[in-house]
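Ticket #4471: structure export looks truncated?
Reporter: QA, pipeline team
Priority: medium

Steps to reproduce: submit the single chain below to the structure queue and open the exported record.
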Amino acid sequence: MTDRLKGKVAIVTGAGLAGELTGNGAATAILFAREGASVLCADLAEAKAEQTAAVIRSEGGNASAFRADVSKSGDCAAMVEACVERYGGLDILDNNVGISVRADVLEVTEEQWDRVMAVNVKSIMLTAKFAVPQITRRGGGSIINISSVAGLRANQSTPYSTSKAAVIGMTRSMAGDHGAQGIRVNCIVPGLIYGPMTAARMDPALRATRRQASPLGTEGTGWDVAWAAVFLASDESRWISGVALPVDAGFLVMSPTTKARLAQQQI
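Actual output as written to the record:
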């Protein structure tokens, strides 16, 4: 690797390993460490966070696990405090947690709605509330929020789509609010990623359909999201803030029907 994050300290939420597939958070934590950062791997399931930290340490990197429910203020405060105690400061916050409920406004319950908003949206506000002062003390840094193409297109889940649209709006607001402290705030907009959150409901036919929905016609993984996060965390993106960066194989630039029509013309 190239030490793009050498000397930096990062918190990655939702960083736990979940089975054979590596999700966005775990992949991001691993790549941050490979690029030289010390990483606090935070997750609701501490054992999963420890699995990610163990992978990093086995490669010679510096990482530790922390259990946190980032929808709760006290957990977020403790998480940031632990990071500063263990590593001396904080430069990078990467917000990866997310849950989904497949329902429209007629089907979703009030409890489901509140839970999705708490995990997907409120968590970013809470982590930033405690992280921003620490990042400011280091002279600035980077906050990266994970949205989704579902925040820009219907996705058969009104609460999830609404929450991910809110992440984009919050990212832009935070970028404006905290730029004077040298803090860049951006978000990644993943496309149809094949990972722990989606694999359980996938069969080969659905995977093929999702893959073919984008102009590139290839399947994305957590590693694709993680490499974008490395760029946004590094000094290479020093003049980039308030951006919603699609990592989607071009999914947002072309409708699936147009893609199918073009494919037919090429036969």
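Status: closed, not a bug. The export was complete when the record was re-opened. Leaving a note from the reviewer for reference: The chain has nine helices and seven strands.
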